[in-house]
Every structure is written in C-alpha cells, then in structure tokens.
C-alpha cells in the first residue's frame, strides 16, 4: 500500500523536481562512499575532506549531575549560555535521576520554569549503576526531535562549544564515537573507550543503545568503560575520533591525562574548585567580549 502511494505521488511531480531529487540522491550516496567504515587507524585523517561542511548540524549535550548541585548548575548555565557556534545548534541540558526530597521538587520546578533545561530520568541516583545507559536509551522516547549528535558530559568539565562544533564539522554523521580515548597516552581511538569526561555519539548509535539488548545487559560498572564494551560486542562505531590534545584533564590533576591549558582546547576536565574554573575562564578570555558601559566598572 505504502509503496503504491509513493509511486503515484512521484508520477505527478514536475520533471524539474524529479531531477533535483535524483541529484540529491546521487550526492547523498557520494557522502556515504567517502566515509567507508574502515576501522584502519589512519581513517581518522581522511575525515578532513568533507562534503558536510555547509550543513548546520545539532548537538545535545547532557550534563550528568545531581539534583542538589544548584551552584554548579548556576555556573554552567552562565558558561554555556554565553557561548555560540556558527556551525551547530547546541542544546545543553542537565540530567539526573528521581528527586528524593520535597525541597528539590520545589527548587527544581523553579529551575524548570525559568530555564526548561532539565531531564529527570526514571532511575535512582548513581554513578556506575546504569545512569548513562538510562540517559541514552531514554532519549529517543522523550526528545521531541532528533539531534545529529548526543553527548554525555560530566559537571566538572568546561566545553568550548565553538571549538567542539568545529572539530565535529568534518566528521561523519553516522556510526561516530567521539571523545578522549583511554588510556591517557594513547592516540588510537579504536584501542579501548572514551573517557567519561565527555563522549559523543551520532544519533544512529543513540537509537541502537535504546533498542539493542547488548547495552541493556551490561549496565553495572564504570560507565565509560562499559560503553566501549557495548560497541565492541555490537561491532559498532566504525567511525571514531579521539580529540587529543584538545581534550584533557586540568593541569596536574591526573598524570598523563593532564597537560597545560592550550589555545586549541575543546574541553578541560576535573574542574572541582573555583580557582580552577577562574583560571580556565580567564585563560580562554571568556569574559573579554564584555564592552564598557556606564552601568559598571570591572
Ligand atoms: C520506572 O522504572 C521502574 C523500574 O525501575 C518501572 O517499574 C516503572 O514503570 C518506570 N516508570 C516509568 C514512568 O517509566
Ligand atoms: C522514579 O519516580 C517515578 C515517578 O514518581 C516512579 O514511577 C518511578 O518508579 C521512580 N523510579 C525509581 C527507579 O525509583
Ligand atoms: C590500530 O589499532 C589496533 C587496535 O585496534 C592496533 O592493534 C594496531 O596496532 C593499530 N595499528 C596502527 C598502524 O597503529
Ligand atoms: C548478558 O550477559 C551475561 C553475562 O555477561 C551473558 O551470560 C548473557 O548471555 C547475556 N545475555 C544477552 C541477552 O546478551
Ligand atoms: C586571550 O587574549 C590574549 C590577549 O588578547 C591573547 O594574547 C591570547 O592569545 C588569548 N587566549 C586565547 C586562548 O585565545
Ligand atoms: C561589544 O561591542 C561590539 C561593537 O559594537 C558589538 O559587536 C558586540 O556585540 C558587543 N558585545 C557585547 C557582549 O555586547
């Protein structure tokens, strides 16, 4: 029935439109062919020649945090609220499990009324008991639209949205797993898994996590490591990109995962203290965009 209907519609399309459709189809095939899902380690370099560069794409960044971390959400809303990207539409949301206190139901309702940037999953707050699985597997059911990419980030990471989107721009839109590969010293994105500081999937992998029995069966343990295991068992994520040295842990906090702040940074992790946030925000000139005004002097 469905097929027949399509054929009839096609027959009444004007010839111009038909040739347009033909060319669109032709070019979309080309795009796929230029990214053979080759697991060769060199394949990451091939991503530089891209046919995607002119299409705006979208990213959902889910920051996994806990209901009572009001102050951290305040800071992160400021940090992400003033950033822009010319190549991607980026939504940042805070993700936690069920509320447990009556006061949270009031204060978090206030936040939702004001910001509408909170997702409360059906789970009990935990770090390594499946929150990340619940996050990704719930999204296809609860989101009103699909995103090109979905990221999971920690609440102690500073992400530069413009740099993140520029680094994603030339990469494949399907079967992609992006982040900071573990072990720290490795540059091979196929060797193991991406650090929990912030990793990203293309939408098809988010759907796969929701549907496949493989992730559902492996939810207990370190969340980032488990993700690597799912993809290995499922033979998924042929396209991988480890964004080193642009992603790293704050200087001096985690051995070979740490290095000095550098201009081309995408993300800095392990920002636990105010002085670390201050250092990072100052280094990246985050507030330099402020102009003089009669209202204040800084
Ligand atoms: C939440 O999860 C529990 C099991 O953990 C299930 O029994 C319940 O139906 C779920 N509720 C919703 C609203 O999905
Ligand atoms: C979370 O809260 C919902 C709504 O109150 C409830 O249906 C669900 O069972 C809770 N889930 C867990 C895992 O506690
Ligand atoms: C590519 O990665 C694999 C691990 O997936 C590794 O065994 C192999 O040595 C790497 N090859 C090169 C050329 O780096
Ligand atoms: C789930 O995992 C267990 C233990 O790793 C394994 O024995 C079982 O076959 C798995 N089940 C499915 C449906 O993958
Ligand atoms: C911050 O601004 C200073 C002064 O304009 C400049 O020298 C420096 O390169 C900027 N830093 C970054 C990371 O863009
Ligand atoms: C600062 O002034 C410039 C030039 O007038 C303007 O383009 C820019 O948007 C202003 N920045 C802010 C944060 O208002």
UniProtKB/TrEMBL annotation:
It holds the Pfam family Galactosyl_T. Gene3D superfamilies: 3.90.550.50. Its cofactor is Mn(2+). Keywords: Glycosyltransferase, Golgi apparatus, Manganese, Membrane, Signal-anchor, Transferase, Transmembrane, Transmembrane helix. It is a single-pass type II membrane protein. Pathway: Protein modification; protein glycosylation. Its EC number is 2.4.1.-. The keyword Manganese applies. The keyword Ribonucleoprotein does not apply. InterPro entries: Glyco_trans_31, Nucleotide-diphossugar_trans. It is an enzyme of class 2 (transferase). It is found in: Golgi apparatus membrane. Its main location: Golgi. The chain crosses the membrane at residues 7-27. Belongs to the glycosyltransferase 31 family. This is Hexosyltransferase. It comes from Hevea brasiliensis (Para rubber tree). The lineage of its organism: Eukaryota, Viridiplantae, Streptophyta, Embryophyta, Tracheophyta.
